[in-house]
Amino acid sequence: MKWWRVLAVAALVLAGCGEEQRSEPVPTPARFDELDRLPPKTGGFDALVKRREAYEAARRAEIARMRRSKSVEGALRVARLTGRITVGAEGSMRAEWTNANAVLGRLSGVPHTELAYVVNAVRSLAAGHILTADRLRPTFLILRQNVRFWKDQPVPASGWRTTFGRDPTIFQYYPGRGLQLQPLASWGRANAIAGACLAALRTKTTRDTCRRAAVTRSLDRLASLGARRSGYLAWEYYFAYGTGSPPWVSGMTQATAAQALARGYRALGYTRWKRAAERSLGAFEQAPPSGVAVSGHYRLYSFSPGHQVLNGELQAVLGLRDTSALLHSDRARRLFRSGDRAARRSVAEYDTGAWSLYSQRGAESTLSYHALTAGFLGGLCDRTDARIYCRTFSRFERYEKEPTRIGLAPLKGTRWDRARTVRFSLSKVSSVKVRVWGKRGLSLSRDFAQLPRGSHSFAWKPEGRGRFRVRIEARGPSGPVGVETRVVRVTTPAAKKKKPKKQKKANKRQAAGERPDTG
Question: What domain range is 450 assigned to?
């Protein structure tokens, strides 16, 4: 029995022990917004009950009608009628939506393009019936900040990041997609300050290094921007990226968030952070596109199950390990062990012998990603003491100090009258300079901004014969330079020997079938 029925019955008992009273029938309105035109509250408690029943019937009918709507206003109405947002919040968001479209109409050029993407992204979520009540807060935060920014700010550089006021959320500029909420960057910073508090707690120096207010503000704010996704708490991305359409999730982000919340809980003791961390673990239990779990591995992007990125997988495993230890969570421990087994089997595939690969069977890492991967390997080495993590960590660190190894193919038989293909190999991705000197000075100068590991070549035609010096210089991502030199002797092609005249005549007679002259 619903609360209002209980209240009505109790009121009847108190008023007259169930005495029968007359009441007029109360019509059921066709639309929810017609409730205000119902008859006044007269006719006793039976009328009150019927009025409430009419209210509930009209509310359910209005929810069903608004769920069929593909508009942003319809999504807001559903959230309000289901009690997920207040009347004031609905009104405020409606005003923001109207204002965003009005500002868009006044912009031109790049600001118009950027804001248009954000506005259309919110509209597309509504049209796809995925602008749920949980997603209203993050999507309208993105909308609000873009409206404020593009009205009068200059166009920033690609990848530019910023915060607004005291809000700890980090935004990043993606050309053509506006300013977008960056959950990984936001949680990464929160993770760092929560980790500082945890370290201070262990060393009993909290007064000096633990910023309790910053931790509380960051974790509470970021946790509030999570959305329910297939039954778990997710910090989603609301813009298209690669082959992915919004909303999508990242295993790296989910693990970083759980790790930050677990650290905050252990340092400050707020159980709401523990609950949020545990609710986020569903991402590692579900396959794409809902989650990121693929045969024990944890993918970087939920929209790309075949794309395995080492740094993302290692951080997912590392974050789950810390979450299980700090929360004493059997669920997190089970997920960590599954990911740990898969990661140990695949780590060696990313080691080229001179550098790291960014993705499985993909290109080599940039310096920042190589260092990031090495850091995660070091963290797992410290926590698990697993040989594969420790050895790979040591090798990756050593690679940053080693110069590029260059192999230069033999150059014998080089002639001045022909172009020569000079072949060489690199042990790691490098920028390359090729110089060739001869008697007359510089014979060839070629620069390659970046070449991957493996075999390469260039064409060279000597100006003449003599000795030439070939020098190849390769600078790896971390700075050390490898050099290979070779001295080449360029020769003149051998002249054909002329045959004697008598021999020529003899050859002609022999060809004609005559006997050679012997006497």
Answer: 406-490
pLDDT for res 218: 98
**Residue 219: which pLDDT band, with cuts at 50, 70 and 90?**
very high
Domain stop point among 399, 423, 457: 399
Higher pLDDT, 418 or 335: 335
List phi, psi (to 5°) of 460.
Answer: -145, 130
CA distances from 185 to 175, 204, 211, 257, 311 (A): 18, 28, 19, 10, 15
Quick check: 181 and 221 in contact, CB under 8 A?
no
pTM: 0.83
380, 287: one domain:
yes
| CA angle at 400 for the pair 399 and 404, rounded to the nearest 5° | 65
Provide the token pair at 516: 């050679």
CATH number of the domain to which 423 belongs: 2.60.40.10
Question: Does residue 509 form part of some domain?
Answer: no
Looking at the structure of the chain, the number of domains it has is 3
- 1-10, 122-131, 240-249: which has the minimum mean pLDDT? 1-10
Cis omega (within 30 of 0) on the bond before 288?
no
Q: 366 and 475: one domain?
A: no
- Rg over alpha carbons for the chain, rounded to the nearest Å, is 36
Mean pLDDT of the chain: 89
- Please tell me the predicted confidence (pLDDT) of residue 451: 97
Q: Are residues 237 and 371 in the same domain?
A: yes
Q: Are residues 423 and 392 in the same domain?
A: no
CB 96 within 8 A of CB 140: yes
pLDDT digits (tens, 9 = 90+) for 303-321: 999 999 999 999 999 999 9
Q: Give 320-333 pLDDT, tens digit per residue.
A: 999 999 999 999 99
Residue 77 to residue 94: CA distance in whole angstroms: 10
Q: Answer whether residue 39 shows pLDDT above 90.
A: no
| 381 and 416 share one domain | no
Residues 377 and 425 in one domain: no
Q: What angle do CA 167, 168, 169 make, to 5 degrees?
A: 95
Residue whose tokens read 């974050």: 319
- Domain assignment present for 516: no
Q: Whose CA is closest to 223, among 184, 276, 168?
A: 276
